[in-house]
């Protein structure tokens, strides 16, 4: 892709092309590999860098050098072949963050097999739905999570045990430690993997709220890796950095950036198995962390408790905080920079469907464009489309943000209808976000067409909770909305219409839901209502309910 300054008819200030009604990235384009027969693992392993330590377990201090990682990947991929794993097979990974998470992913993808991840907090029922859809032929998990795979009929490799025996009732076929000790078969036939082949199958709530498998190719992942390395200017001998992985590796950003991408740059990744504020803060000084990814509610907590935190923890190595999930306000941005001087805030915007890439702020000055999601990432294009007419709009006009670029997904797994409604025939991705792009190329998210609730960065689809509530024998109708909360961002609130004669209580509603969903999806507030407001076509008027719920705040 040509650099914006070399392209005719484009406003270099906003990136807008009047002829095509398209916004172009103002970032320097990142190079993409020309070899079509290339998998993401080979692409990463072939990159030269000067790094020594690849991964550190924040809790135990256990370390993996880059040599350890690549030796393990060779052994595990060879062992997977012995188990009959071939190109196109789906492998499920059910695990909290771990220094072994990257080894599993890289091994699977090196064979042209497909990695599908799931949230360890999900219930057995939620995981079984994903298994039924993706049809994995093998699963990796830890001992504590084995019960969530009970009855799934999938052979299992246990990650955190040295023996594959003693797991009665489970088809445990191996352990990761045994696989890592396998001597690689250098004569094994390696199937040709192309950039267009599927690498990951991650599940996203999408626009409608029904969970769908997002198909990302090896090319998508390579483009994301190149963007991350270019954004943070990594890979130089004089720029050795340490990242603290606080985000879940089962999520697109954690998987591609922290579980695979950063290994291409020589950076060190310190892995938190689960988020805990004290361990996060103590790890910064203990491991000389320079980059810290966060969601906005945690960043707010750092601002509000800055005096105590700075007295108790050594944060002098910290240089950058990376925030995503929602734009930061002026108060939060300025409050953070005042309390933590010398630390730069960088923000990012992306979707699972765009392999976590879309827009970012890369400097203090850019982050001070308050409320922005940032400027278009390298190699990306955007349109702002009128939701009524379908017409592409110009600078400072609000419509749905469409994205196009090398990180945009191939489509949804076995769901042509959902794919057609999200991707147009020329590769434009409808994000479901109402946005405008200003005269300097900054994207501002005005509202969400998608009705997802963002709880601590987790996506909670209201439609899923509504479908569950309607199975309760005493509920006639319901609606679930996001309720604002300074500590978690938003939490699910339910408006419930009781059946005639019912005395159903708020606690009973919350208990009914909590037994069937992951903790982050739980209903945390209930209000009873005579009827749910809907438009003539039957669509819930959530904005009216949000206004009602927040009117007394």
TrEMBL record:
- Which Pfam family, giving just one, matches this sequence? AMP-binding_C
Q: Where is the AMP-dependent synthetase/ligase domain?
A: 45-413
What molecular functions are annotated in GO for this chain?
Answer: (E)-caffeate-CoA ligase activity; ATP binding; trans-feruloyl-CoA synthase activity
**Biased segments, Polar residues type:** 14-23
Kindly list the biological process annotations in GO that this record carries: phenylpropanoid metabolic process
User: Which keywords accompany this UniProt record?
Assistant: ATP-binding, Ligase, Membrane, Nucleotide-binding, Phenylpropanoid metabolism, Transmembrane, Transmembrane helix
**Where would you find the membrane-spanning parts of this chain?**
99-121, 250-271
- Specify the pathway: Phytoalexin biosynthesis; 3,4',5-trihydroxystilbene biosynthesis; 3,4',5-trihydroxystilbene from trans-4-coumarate: step 1/2
- Name the Gene3D superfamilies on file: 3.30.300.30, N-terminal domain of ligase-like
One of the record's GO cellular component terms: peroxisome
- Please list the residue ranges annotated as the AMP-binding enzyme C-terminal domain: 464-539
Q: Where does the record place the region Disordered?
A: 1-32
| Keyword Amino-acid biosynthesis (UniProt) | no
Q: Which InterPro entries match?
A: AMP-bd_C, AMP-bd_C_sf, AMP-binding_CS, AMP-dep_synth/lig_dom, ANL_N_sf
Which PANTHER family does this entry report, sorted A to Z? LONG-CHAIN-FATTY-ACID--COA LIGASE (PTHR24096), PEROXISOMAL OPC-8:0-COA LIGASE 1 (PTHR24096:SF413)
State the family it belongs to: Belongs to the ATP-dependent AMP-binding enzyme family.
Name used for this protein in its record: OPC-8:0 CoA ligase1
